[in-house]
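Recap from last week: sequence in, structure out.
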Amino acid sequence: MSGYPNMREFYQKGLILIGENDRAALLQKSGENTSHEGSTHWLIAMEGSEKQPDIYQWKVLIYPSDSKKVNCYKSPYYSSQHFSSIHDAINYSNELSQKAREDQLNTLE
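Predicted structure tokens:
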């Protein structure tokens, strides 16, 4: 495993500005990892991996980024459970996008 997402089945949403509460949670979670300090936005994406031939499972991932690039693909801020349906993953990514716009990603477990 390379530590980078499967770009073949990687679908990202538009960037969302990080709110004050979420930024504080991000910096606290990062600890001594300074790669997230310049993060100003969230990138929410769905990543598919082949479970069996032609059968995919999906995760929703949240990465800290700036307006031009993701700062670290190796350590997403959040990674969901696997979904067997891309439609369920899309719905969940929409819920997370709404939480991000409301500065509430810090409430995720």
